[in-house]
Amino acid sequence: MSVTWRSGAPPPVVPRGAGHWPRVALRGTLLMLLLLAGVLVTLPLRLIERPVYGQHRPWTPSITKWVSRCVFAILGMAHRIEGQPMTGPGAVVCNHVSWLDIFALNARKRVYFVSKSEVAGWPGIGALARLTGTVFIKRDRREARGQTTIFAERLGLGHRLLFFPEGSSTDGMRVLSFKSTLFEAFFTLNKAQTMQVQPVTVIYRAPSDQDRRFYGWWGDMSFGGHLVQVLGAARQGGVTLLYHAPLRVTDFTDRKALAAAAEAAVRGGMPQDRRGV
Predict the structure, then answer these.
(1) Does some domain include residue 207?
(2) Could you tell me if residue 78 is inside a domain?
(3) For strand 238-243 and strand 196-205, is the pairing parallel, antiparallel, or unpaired?
(4) Contact 87, 259 (CB under 8 A)
(5) What is the reported pLDDT for 51?
(6) Is 6 a domain residue?
(7) Which tens digit of pLDDT belongs to each residue from 89-100?
(8) Is position 2 within any domain?
């Protein structure tokens, strides 16, 4: 994930009232135990899956979904979906608001995230990303051929890849212009099998007593500070995933047209006051 977008307005100041730190301690402990349990169950299953099935994962995706659903139960956040997640091969693209997006998108339908290569080396997060099958790439058009090879291998296994075309998380009040680079690979792959790209709009609803940007994670905001903010909230809001109709790659002339159509669908799913760039 890349946290580079910056707003003209500063992040909201979130007051820490009575009970903030006890909530942080309780929820934080439960989340650590949950993630540890997920790792301890996933590791031995991967030792079985890898030699028998290779990159195909018949069992461990269910663990990822279960852990992701439990994250929202621990936080007390509502999680709902509208529309129908696609079932065939292809990719999912959506707007990017927070580190919570990873759990929100994994909670209902198994996807494999496409992330920048630097994340693989991040302490803790990199190991979890590798364990859950994240695809690591360099966001460089010169790497297009290598990306196509990686995508072809994973899509051939029936994996649904997910990436954030904005290239950055935001405050959740807008959709940034979609970068089209990663869409190029699907035009090459489509020669072998029909590819689809499903746009998804991620909409966060802040707690009733907080700024509407409460769940947004952007600019110079630290992960630890934002995590403590969410863990300590006395009230929680929720997240809605709006699944749009999949776009057939063959219906578009090039990557820019496909990216523009996906962006329009995601932007159109946002509340009226959150559609700006």
Answers:
(1) yes
(2) yes
(3) antiparallel
(4) no
(5) 59
(6) no
(7) 789 999 999 999
(8) no
